[in-house]
Design brief:
Number of domains: 3
Shape: globular
Number of helices: 5
Structural class: mainly beta
Strand order of the largest sheet: 3-4-7-19-22-25-28-31-34-37-40-43-46
Helix content: under 10%
Strand content: 35-45%
Radius of gyration: 25 Å
Largest sheet: 13 strands, parallel
Distance between the termini: 48 Å
Length: 525
């Protein structure tokens, strides 16, 4: 077993001289529970028995030989395997321990302008998902190729292939770049880790995960619906679908970096009591899935008693956080959500939410129409409290939207309160809302049921001058558009305690929140 400097920085010696491991990425607090290894793994080892002196050569071998409750320590190195876990245990990775769903391929043959090899991916190429209108349709194909660690762009016709591209067809992969004297990795495995038989009490810590051919709406790491998984301090990238999928009660996803996944960073449904805390979730939806269907930083459905706090979600092609379809008892707290293609935080066709103390900026410019580009969006949901958030420089500030949704029952907006928020907006058109209560239904129940309200919010609204010398003013909405804050304060959605603030007061609030004092760019996209 290697014991280089990176490992020594993580070792704590217990009273009996045993080695315990505590992992913590730079600038983050360590987990509270040190773990003592019982089995050891070293890439390339052979003939071992899992002891520290004679480690196993693969993680899967260690899992097969582990007893319930064992702790498996994995040395730095690359492990090209897919691991199925059927018993409670912990997998701990030394810094540099990397699990890849790809293999290195050589033997490429020149054919005209391309380099080719026969292709059998090793997993079912399930065609699933809805691609963004106007895309080339690649989101439906989970194939992946990397040269020297960089992803190639998948074309869906051979004639479109050029340098930096690849194509799958005729039983071959076609490369548009010369692979000579370069490392070519082709994804051949569906998942990195999967729980089976709903096994619970599994911990996954400290790994780099790369390259998984998992299809849309599924995760490269999947708890299999088993309870109390802890997935922490990992770096998770380049799954075709989602990076991490949790469906089990009590799952915890803590302090991971989750990025450059094809559809979503995080996904899950059904589970109760899950916690998503301290993660960085960024630049997901690389495969151009339709953001109205399902794509972006994260999406969960049917979860209950669910906590999302102290995360950063940014630069995702879709919403930053999205809970949709019968979510119940969800709290979004102390998150930083910025520069996402659609809404920063979106709560849809659900009930009982608290969205508080979040910082949201630069979101929504991928679809900035009629309130959809909000920093915070409550959509067809009931009994939600949106309070004490700072929401600045989004396409819209805070939107509460009610639609006719024949695909779902109980979608009337009622019991929604918007209180104590600071909202700063800069007009880019006549229909940009600082706080908009909006409906496209024949029913006026959003305004007449007597349960929806806003109050004690602070607004900064900055006008712009158009080419026609017409000054556009950011609007409010309550039973129609309202530009004058005095009129808005007279409505239940505005509240008598709401007020406009000046630039000096706004900058003090933004500076204290660690947010940009002005829009970071005129065109955020």
């Amino acid at each position: 077993m290697q014991t280089g400097t990176p490992l020594l920085a993580l070792l704590l010696l217990g009273s009996c001289g045993q080695t315990s491991l505590v992992f913590s990425p730079p600038g983050q607090s360590p987990p509270s529970t040190p773990l003592t290894p019982t089995l050891y793994v070293q890439a390339g080892a052979s003939g071992g028995d899992g002891s520290q002196e004679r480690p196993f050569g693969s993680i899967a071998q260690a899992v097969r030989n582990a007893r319930p409750g064992d702790v498996i320590w994995v040395a730095a190195g690359t492990y090209r395997e897919s691991i199925r876990i059927d018993k409670p245990l912990a997998l701990l990775g030394e810094p540099g321990a990397t699990i890849k769903g790809s293999d290195i391929w050589t033997g490429w043959v020149r054919e005209g302008n391309y380099w080719t090899r026969a292709y059998n991916p090793g997993f079912n190429r399930i065609i699933r998902g809805v691609c963004r209108p106007g895309s080339n349709g690649r989101c439906q194909y989970p194939d992946q190729v990397f040269i020297d660690g960089e992803p190639l762009f998948q074309q869906t016709s051979l004639s479109a292939v050029g340098p930096g591209d690849f194509y799958v067809g005729n039983g071959k992969i076609y490369l548009g770049s010369d692979p000579t004297n370069r490392t070519v990795e082709v994804t051949t495995r569906y998942r990195w880790i999967e729980g089976i038989n709903k096994v619970g009490d599994v911990r996954i810590r400290g790994f780099i995960f790369r390259h998984a051919g998992v299809d849309a709406q599924h995760g490269g790491i999947f708890d299999g619906g088993g309870p109390r998984w802890i997935i922490e301090d990992n770096d998770v990238a380049y799954a075709h679908g989602a990076g991490i999928e949790t469906n089990g009660d009590g799952a915890q996803v803590l302090r991971n970096r989750i990025h450059h996944n094809g559809q979503l960073g995080l996904a899950g449904d059904v589970g109760r009591g899950m916690v998503i805390r301290g993660n960085k979730i960024y630049r997901n939806n690389t495969e151009d899935f339709d953001t109205d269907w399902e794509a972006g930083g994260s999406k969960w459905t049917l979860v209950k008693d669910f906590l999302v706090e102290d995360n950063e979600s940014y630069e995702n092609r879709g919403s930053g956080f999205w809970c949709d379809i019968h979510c119940d008892g969800v709290v979004f707290r102390n998150n930083r959500v910025y520069n996402n293609w659609k809404a920063g935080i979106q709560y849809e066709v659900s009930r009982n939410c608290t969205i508080e103390n979040n910082k949201a900026w630069g979101n929504g410019f991928g679809f900035p129409l009629w309130g959809w580009g909000a920093g915070i969006l409550v959509q067809n949901s009931s009994h939600c409290l949106v309070r004490n958030n700072v929401v600045a420089w989004n396409a819209d500030g805070i939107s509460v939207i009610q639609q006719d949704r024949p695909d779902h029952d109980a979608t009337e907006v009622n019991g929604v309160r918007v209180e104590g928020n600071t909202v700063a907006v800069k007009a880019i058109g006549v229909l940009d809302y600082a706080l908009g209560w909006l409906t496209d239904t024949a029913s006026r129940s959003l305004y007449t049921n007597g349960t929806n309200s806003g109050d004690n919010n602070r607004f900064y609204r900055e006008s712009t001058l158009s080419a026609q010398n017409i000054t556009y003013r950011v609007n409010f909405a309550w039973e129609g558009e309202i530009s004058d804050i005095t009129r808005f304060r007279a409505t239940p959605g505005g509240g008598s305690g709401s007020q406009e603030i000046n630039r000096t007061d706004l900058e003090a609030i933004l500076r204290n929140a660690g947010m940009p004092l002005r829009p970071e760019r005129e065109n955020p996209l």
